[in-house]
Amino acid sequence: MSNVVNTAGWSHNRVPERAKTVYYGEYKCKGPRANPNNREPFVKQLSGAEVQPFLVLDFIEATKWLLPPPNY
User: Fold this and answer.
1) Distance between CA atoms of 3 and 54, rounded to whole angstroms?
2) Which InterPro entries does the protein's record reference (predicted)?
3) What mean pLDDT value characterizes the chain?
4) What is the pLDDT of residues 24-53, one digit of tens each?
5) Domain limits of the chain?
């Protein structure tokens, strides 16, 4: 992440109760503002195993609305 990114990473947009139910996850963020120690308490640093469910097309039912993945 570049220096234009706030070091907190995310916010509750002035509605603090959102922090109780929101799920923000980061995976392998790099750069000057990627220090996870400065993140809001509700931001989770994901492991390789934790990020896997989010990296498949089925997570967002993408096979129903995105073009098919290329066949190489």
Assistant:
1) 26
2) Pectin_lyas_fold (IPR012334), Pectin_lyase_fold/virulence (IPR011050)
3) 84
4) 899 998 888 888 888 888 889 999 999 999
5) 1-72
